[in-house]
Amino acid sequence: MPNATYMMLIVLLPLLSFLIMGLFGRTYLKNTAGIISTCLSFLSTCLAFYTAYGYFFEYGKINGVYQKLIPFNYLWLAFSEGLSINMGILLDPITAMMLVVVTLISLMVHIYSLGYLKGEERFPTYYAFLGLFTFSMLGLVVASNIFQIYIFWELVGVSSFLLIGYYYEKPSAVAACKKAFIVTRFADLGFLIGILVLSFYAGTLDFNTLIQRLTSPESNELKSALAASFLGISALTWGMILVFVGGAGKSAMFPLHIWLPDAMEGPTPVSALIHAATMVVAGVFLVARLFPIFAISAPDALEIVAYVGAISALFAAIIACTQTDIKRVLAFSTMSQIGFMMFALGVSKYGGEEGLGYTASMFHLFTHALFKALLFLGAGAVIHYVHSNNMKDMGGLRKQLPITHFTFLIACLAISGVPPFAGFFSKEEILLAAFQHNQTIYWMALITSGLTAFYMFRLYFSIFWNKSYHPHHEDEHGHHGEGGFVMMMPLVLLSVGACLAGFIPFGKFVSSDGTALVSEFHLQFSIAPVALGLTGIFTALFLYKTENDKPDKMASTLRALYQIAYHKFYIDEIYLFITQKILFNCIGKPAAWFDKNVVDGLVNATGNTTQVLSEKIKKIQSGKVQEYAVYFLVGVFGLAMVFIYMWK
Amino acid sequence: MNLLLLILIPLLTAVAVFMMQNNNQVRWIAFFGSAIQLILSLGLYVVYTNARNHGDTAQMLFEQNMPLFKSWNINLHLGVDGISVAMIMLTAFVVVAGVLMSWKMEKMTKEFYFLLILLSMGAYGFFISLDLFVLFFFLEIAVIPKYLLIGVWGSGKKEYSANKLALMLMTGSALVLVGMFILYFGGGKSFDILQLAQTTIPTWTQHICFPLLFVGFGVFTALFPFHTWVPDGHSSAPTAGSMFLAGISMKLGGYGCLRVATYLLPEGAKEYANIILLLSAIAILYGAFATMMQKDLKYINAYSSISHCGFVLLGIGMLTKVAITGAIMQMVSHGLMTALFFAVIGIIYERTHTRQVNEMGGLLKVMPFTITLLFIVGLCSLGLPGLSGFVAEMTVFVGSWENPDTFHRIVTVAGCMSIVVTAVYILRAIGKTAMGPLKEEYNNLSDAAWHEKLATIILLVGIIAIGVAPFWLNDLVSPGAELIMQKIQMAK
Question: Does B447 touch chain A (CB under 8 A)?
Answer without folding.
Answer: no
